[in-house]
Amino acid sequence: MSYLPKGLPAPVTETDKLDAPYWAGTREGKLRVQRCAACNTWQWGPEWLCHNCRSWDMRWVEVEGKGKIWTWTRCWHPVHPALKGHGPYIAVLVELPNAGNVRMLGNLLGDPEQPVRIGAPVEAVFEPHDDAATPYTLVQWKLAT
What we know:
About 5% of the residues lie in helices and about 40% in strands. It contains 1 helix and 8 strands.
């Protein structure tokens, strides 16, 4: 079952393919984040160069899909025509403690009017879109039980 309605544009890999390992991981149900092989610094979003030591030796590492809500917002206005009548929805910025506290943006699944607590534990949910012209998988978040 899809959380998002049909009609939204599918995400595409950047032309330089830097983020291809991330998208390939989502198709396998794996969350991947970059980590510098020189200084072990984690970083997100994808970059060719380490922000900490300027090394070019960035690696993609599978991380546990568990984090905590760093901040959130309840969105009432559609940001795309396909979302008309689909709101509200909750967008969360999730901090990943097992990946150097990098933060990823996503939707919080469940009741769109549920109470949300900063610091609440969440788990990644992989939402496949196999019927798209080019199949892809999105990472959504749900409250951990």
